[in-house]
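$ ./design --mode recover --in tokens.txt
reading tokens...
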């Protein structure tokens, strides 16, 4: 049998694509050489949030509850893939004639379309944040190399667990993609909690437990790219490579390496295969960190907008002026920053503190739907909640405009 779509990789991109493809009536196969759900479910996103937002009396209780959470989510994932043929083996392209030939273990499969969702791997060997989030025992002292999302969350978790933590970052500040006010607020809070942060350093000291959180690279080894004439994975806006019928989504593209970007790209690829129009709006892609304090941002920074010629304006609101933040135990360092263009269209929403990640959905709507500051200022937010900071920021921008 020739499949309509054959998917290499069983992480969030692959399983999202498989579920949508089957719902649309395509004959679908999913090749998964590891655990279904991939890094996100088993050692990345889910275990990280679990460890950061829960407290347990002992290691055994934490391990049992973590296994229960992953088990429940795994069962739900399988239920969404009932109409998908799942092969628990790695796959590799073996060329293309009228259809693609794919080797799955010792079995040969054919497909009209192939979607690469093989994810990424750490760019160097060693202890990783994923190892920490799935470990039953934690180091009492550690150096973390790299202050991206994984490194920052790992530092926050280890410090919460009582470890002495040093964070090394080769750049000159945390989170350069976010507004400087957000980076500064997170840095102040980290140092207040006893996390040592050193900038301009990319070499860890000898004799320390080192956790490498300084980047990942696309997992393309052994998937047979050269058999179809490709040296690397590059796609257009519809996730299609230079080879007709060959698509890629998620970390294997080497661009936006987040789970939600991977899932959205997978949807885009499947809809393209089905002849439907779709494109990912990267301008409104959310970024979230479940650190303490939590962080989120969607859209542009003021400087980024100005660099592309936009007369951007911005305002910062301290969260200590928002009742919901202080009532929930905020430490007073949190900030909300809103960026808009000269016409009042919201370009970026940045937040450090409170339940920031949960507000990312609202921020996506504000940026993707090009909501005006004036419209936001006239919305009603529940009281007392951290979300009121968004309306407060809008009101400040309105006052400055008038």
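writing sequence...
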């Amino acid at each position: 049998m020739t499949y309509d779509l054959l998917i290499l990789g069983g992480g969030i991109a692959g399983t999202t694509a498989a579920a949508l493809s089957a719902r649309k009536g395509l004959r679908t196969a999913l090749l998964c050489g590891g655990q279904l759900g991939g890094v996100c479910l088993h050692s990345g996103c889910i275990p990280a949030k679990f460890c950061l937002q829960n407290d347990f009396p002992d290691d055994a209780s934490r391990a049992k509850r973590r296994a229960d959470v992953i088990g429940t989510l795994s069962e739900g994932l399988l239920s969404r893939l009932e109409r998908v043929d799942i092969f628990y083996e790695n796959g590799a392209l073996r060329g293309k004639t009228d259809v693609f030939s794919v080797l799955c273990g010792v079995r040969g499969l054919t497909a009209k379309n192939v979607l690469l969702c093989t994810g990424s791997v750490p760019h160097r060997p060693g202890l990783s944040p994923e190892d920490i989030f799935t470990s039953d025992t934690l180091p009492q002292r550690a150096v973390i190399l790299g202050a991206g999302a994984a490194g920052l969350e790992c530092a926050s978790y280890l410090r919460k667990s009582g470890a002495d933590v040093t964070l090394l970052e080769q750049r000159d500040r945390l989170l350069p993609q976010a507004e400087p006010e957000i980076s500064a607020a997170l840095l102040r809070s980290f140092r207040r909690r006893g996390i040592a942060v050193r900038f301009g350093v990319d070499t860890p000291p000898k004799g320390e437990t080192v956790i490498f959180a300084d980047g990942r690279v696309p997992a393309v080894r052994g998937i047979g790219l050269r058999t179809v004439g490709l040296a690397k994975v590059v796609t257009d806006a519809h996730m299609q490579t230079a080879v007709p019928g060959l698509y890629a989504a998620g970390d294997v593209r080497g661009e936006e390496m987040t789970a939600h970007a991977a899932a959205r790209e997978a949807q885009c690829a499947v809809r393209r295969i089905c002849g439907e129009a779709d494109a990912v709006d990267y301008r409104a892609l959310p970024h979230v960190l479940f650190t303490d304090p939590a962080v989120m941002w969607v859209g542009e920074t003021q400087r980024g907008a100005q660099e592309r010629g936009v007369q951007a304006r911005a305002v910062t609101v301290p969260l200590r002026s928002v009742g919901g933040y202080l009532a929930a135990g905020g430490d007073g360092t949190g900030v909300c920053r809103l960026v808009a263009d000269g016409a009042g269209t919201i370009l970026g929403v940045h937040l450090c503190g409170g339940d920031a990640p949960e507000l990312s959905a609202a921020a996506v709507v504000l940026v993707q739907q090009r909501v005006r500051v004036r419209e936001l200022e006239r919305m009603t937010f529940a009281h007392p909640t951290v979300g009121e900071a968004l309306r407060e920021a809008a009101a400040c921008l309105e006052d400055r405009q008038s």
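exit 0
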